[in-house]
Amino acid sequence: MAFHKINVSVNGEIEQVAVPSNMTLMRMLRESLALTGTKNGCSAGECGTCTVLMNGEPVNSCMVLAVECDGVEIITVEGLAYDKRLDPVQETIIEAGGVQCGFCTPGILISARALLDRNPNPSEEEIREALVGNLCRCTGYTRIIESVKKAAKMKLEMA
Amino acid sequence: MTKADLKTVPSPVGENTPRIDSREKVTGAAVYADDIQFGNALLYARIKRSPHPHALIKNIDITKARELHGVKAIVTGEDFPGFIGLYLQDRHIFCRDRVRYVGDPVAGVAAISEEIAQKALDLIDVEYEVLYPVLDPEFGISPEAPILHPDLGKYVVADFILPKPDTNVSNHFKIRKGDVGSTWEKCAAVIERKYRIPHIQHVPLEPHVAIAKVDEAGEVTLWDSSQSPFAQRSLIADALGISQSEMRVIAPSVGGGFGGKAGVSMESLAVAIATKVKGRPVKLLLTREEEFYTAFVRQGLVAYFKIGCDKNGKLLAMENTFYWDGGAYTEYGVNITRAAGYSCTGPYEVPNVKTDSYCVYSNHPVGGPMRGFGMPEMHAGLEQCIEELALQIGMDSIEFRRRNCLKEGSILATGGKMHPTGLSQCLEESAKAIGWGHKAPPSAPNKRRGKGLALMWKAPAMPPNAGSSAWIELAEDGKITLGIGCQEIGQGAFTVAAQMAAAAFGVPYESVRLAAPVDTRYSPYEWQTVASRITWSTGNAIVNAAHDARQQVLQLVSEAWEENYEDLNIVDGVVVSYKTEKEIPLKNLVVYGLPKPDGKGWMGGPIIGRGNFMPSNVTGLDPETGQGEQAVVHFTTGAQAVELEVDLDTGKIDIIKGVAAFDVGKAINPDMVKAQMEGGLVQGISSALFECLQLKDGVVQNPSFVDYRIATSTDIPDEVQSIIVEVPQEDGPWGARGIGEHSMVPTIPAIANAIYDAIGVRFEGPPFTAEKVYLAMLDAGIVK
Fold first, then answer.
1. What is the ipTM of this complex?
2. CA angle, corner B763, sides to B761 and B767, nearest 5?
3. Which of A62, A101, A135 is best to mutate for the B interface (most B CBs within 10 A)?
4. DSSP letter at B193?
5. Domain B33-131+208-285, what architecture?
6. Which of A103, B62, B254, B400 is most deeply packed, by most CB within 10 A?
């Protein structure tokens, strides 16, 4: 198997990683960089648990090859908090009680953050649409949607 | 401090304390089994599975696979003769002479990479003699069906499970109460219906994963995503012929269970393979496809109901026959059949009952416990019959339910009496919240609007003597470490455990730390995290442990201060005397003790409290009549109501509002109780509208998220209302009983009743997909 050396920015730090051609971004994060907050729910791009930001856009990291990430900026759930301060989407999902088993949570938070980055004041409909690719089996989504609304409000107040 | 000051220190019980695990979970720091790093020693396992629903294994050739570079071990059923199973030991770890479902494990490979392990599977040659399969439970029980377990009569079985040797019936539970036969003619209305409930899957977002390591001395360590570390220790050790003490299970965060990670399913495969590569950890991670049909599924059900009432709507008789499609192995499923049997009347008092609940082997995926444990399937038909019966005698269905639903002292199908219950209140409040009796106009001319409601009851289904234990240890800072063996599977068990420990001992919630992850070597015993029994059972053990530790602290202080024990208390982490108003923080005494009153030496020592709990009041039931004094520990009751719209152009159903009301005895954490009600409602909606494992000749046709759809953020009701009812459970901590599973029990019939209200159509079973609804409307002439 051919290995490729790539330079990739992960949560603000430049990492040099040697990756096999068939390694996905998800596996690179989880196995090469031990960033296991990004979850493996289906390996088929269908459940959203492995969602990360790639140059600011949410992607299913199980559907991206690591070699494609040379020179790319990745943000994972581990990179959401800044200087130990939780991101508003993290803070409000706790407050709203939108966390249960926690397995979908990292992907949900990334999708929520991506939504608020491109649309600081989304409607409920837009929030539901933005999360449609992130399956959750525990919460019934209500509290998650509530938390994104609250985070938007919080971000607007901070700005 | 005086006793009056106590009011100013709020008890953490009944408070919406924040989840103990939420910060870990939102930062990606929470560790799940697949996240544990094992380094280069790790081997990867893959499983060779049967492509046939039913066949004899004639030969397995592993020679070519063994030669593949990177393959470290290959195992087959020949290596592991032991049986495994929770209530009925009807399984081997790997198949030995016969395969019984598509996906049955035939051989296992450990290799240095997943790719090599997968390649090795293709090099294993298995020769089969294909046999005629059983693909329907009614066929399975017929004399024409092939016998799938010829040795059924020899299997080890729990004494309350009644298999019928030389048939495919692995459990037959009967109720014979009163005289059904002579009652029908006294009925003003009788309804007879058949329902078919499909197999579905739990679909936890985290697939099953197990990592096993066997050391040179033969000691086994298993890290896995598990609701049942102790049951796994017990069952896997037995199957391997080792002692329980030689088996250790470490169970970190669980990414959703819903019953699918209870008992033993794939974990024993990883352990079996690991026995052949001592010293090296072996990881088996199910693919999402495998998750859909090789982990437990929810059993299918074919149910017949015959129910009669008098002209005043009083229920007089029920005759129910349940054919459960138990799948290839029913080691766990046999008890679902039993639970449906003793709960067969639903939450109603019925004087004459005849019920037969059969667990039938089939060549379908293995049925196992899933949220509700038979109750969603059973109530799906029952609560539609009740609705129809009310209609037949021209009575409002709420009034009909009001008259018949269980109250304290009602006689149950098993002959015992109902304990205090808030069922009537759940009925009234949910009917009120959904606006029963008021019909709002549809939102568009091409839509029809309807409302529906259903009641439920459910007991923890478990052995009569399922136990819990807990310990409480105090550190130098006066804070508690709480040892428990129950699992945090998302339901909030750890948070509630910490609240109860804090309240029972007398420290703030923030002073409690959980000894996690659960590790059978260090954690106290817990039967399993199932049956919605944890708040109640583990809660009682925690209270007992806290009282034990309290007693040690107060005893010590009373001797050191030469005061009466009764005058002392622990409040907010401080020992106080109501008499002398002396105070001492816990941290000053819980590890190093206190000086003796005369100053000559010390007394006390490190404080550690222990407690356990095991129900002691459950009696057996007569095998012929199902009658007995105390069938189960208790029942949680409740109701759900929905308002929905049916789109006449597409058949699509839109749930506008969902209401849930459950009697939880006491909400230890009201917000998390509501979260269970909401999550369960949506899982119930998902099972009602979308979910079905499409089985064709024993093969699951839709093992992916694309083809097996679960509810997404766009499918949920616009409004959800959760109502907590609290009629205390006599033997529950602070009066609490469980809620986790109940929240999806009445959803299917509530939706079915609302669909009927909207368009006057009923179905044999869920899912009520747009396609199915549209075709039914065509048939009924509602649309053209």
1. 0.98
2. 120
3. A101
4. E
5. Alpha-Beta Complex (3.90)
6. A103
Q: Is the full-model pTM beyond 0.95?
A: yes
Per-residue pLDDT tens over the stretch B493-527: 999 999 999 999 999 999 999 999 999 999 999 99
Residues 199-218 of B with CB under 8 A from A: 202-207
- CB–CB contact B705 A37 (8 Å): no
B39 part of contact set with chain A, CB < 8 Å: no
DSSP summary character for residue B511: G
CA distance B715 to chain A (A): 9
* 3 state SS of B397: helix
Closest by Cβ to B28, choosing from A41, A77, A137: A77
Q: Is B393 on the interface with A (CB under 8 A)?
A: no
Beta bridge partner(s), residue A52: A59
Question: What number of other Cβ atoms are within 10 A of residue B394's Cβ?
Answer: 9
**Site from B713, B715, B718 to mutate, A interface, most A CB atoms within 10 angstroms:** B713
CA pair distance B451, B717, nearest whole angstrom: 13
Taking an 8 Å cut-off on Cβ atoms, the answer to whether B206 and A39 are in contact is yes
**B253 in contact with A, Cβ within 8 Å:** yes
Fold classification of B373-460+634-779 is Aldehyde Oxidoreductase; domain 4 (3.30.365)
Position B474 scores a pLDDT of 97
Q: Which candidate, B201, B247, B200, B203, places its Cα nearest to that of B228?
A: B247
User: Residue B4 above 60 pLDDT?
Assistant: no
Does any CB of chain A come closer than 8 Å to the CB of residue B656? no
For chain A, the distance separating the N- and C-terminal CA atoms, rounded to the nearest angstrom, is: 49
Q: Which of A49, A81, A128 lies closest to B27 in CB terms? A: A81
Per-residue buried b or exposed e for B634-668, using 16+ beta carbons within 10 Å of the residue's own CB? bbbbbbbbbbbbbbbeebbbbbbbbbbbbbbbbbb
Distance between start and end Cα atoms, chain B: 78
Q: Which fold has domain B3-30+466-613?
A: Aldehyde Oxidoreductase; domain 4 (3.30.365)
pLDDT tens figures, B581-627: 999 999 999 999 999 999 999 999 999 999 999 999 999 999 999 99
Domains B3-30+466-613 and B373-460+634-779 share a fold: yes
Q: Which residue has the tokens 């747009």?
A: B770
Contacts of B720 in chain A (CB under 8 A): 140, 142
Radius of gyration in angstroms for the set of CA atoms belonging to chain B, rounded to a whole number: 27
Distance CA A104, CA A127 (A): 16
Percentage, residues of chain A above pLDDT 90: 94
Record the tokens describing residue B685, joined without a space: 């909606």
Identity of the amino acid at A89? V
**Contact B680/A at CB under 8 A:** yes
Pairing label, strands B91-92, B83-84? antiparallel
Domains of chain A (ranges; CATH) run: 3-79 (3.10.20.30), 88-158 (1.10.150.120)
Chain A within 8 Å of B765 (Cβ-Cβ)?
Answer: no
Query: A56 with A117: CB under 8 angstroms?
Result: yes
- Find, among B57, B77, B59, the residue nearest to B131 by Cα: B57
Distance from CA of A7 to the nearest CA of B (A): 23
Residue spans of the domains in chain B: they are 3-30+466-613, 33-131+208-285, 373-460+634-779
Name residues whose C-beta falls within 8 Å of residue B263's C-beta, 6 or more positions apart in sequence.
Answer: B86, B228, B231, B232, B235, B296, B331, B332, B368, B369, B528
Tell me if A107 sits within 8 A of B28, measured CB to CB: no
**Gyration radius (Cα) of chain A, Å:** 16
Q: pLDDT grade, residue B685 (50/70/90)?
A: very high
Q: Render B4-45 in DSSP notation, one character per residue.
A: GGGGGS--STTS-PPPTTHHHHHTT---BGGG---GGG-EEE
Q: Which residues of A touch B287 (CB under 8 A)?
A: 43
